[in-house]
Predict the structure.
Amino acid sequence: MNIVSANSEESFKSYRSGAALLRPAIPVQLEKLSLVELKAIAKDMLPVRSVLRGLILSEPDYLPKNEAMAKVDIFVKLLYQELDSR
């Protein structure tokens, strides 16, 4: 099996000729992260009026890995800010 890089000249020629590109199958479960446990922790441990709690609970249960990691980084910063204001 020959897998062509998406950025290669060969890939471009295959695309132009209408040939399908072979790509390795990646299960959706590996591409997404679950926020279910984080949402449960936020619901149980953060005050009802917490902005962070509302923000976390408004997120979908599963996000693409890179998007989830970026949001968790922001959640941590907001958590420290909320803890400092108490």
Summary: Strands lie at 32-34, 62-64.
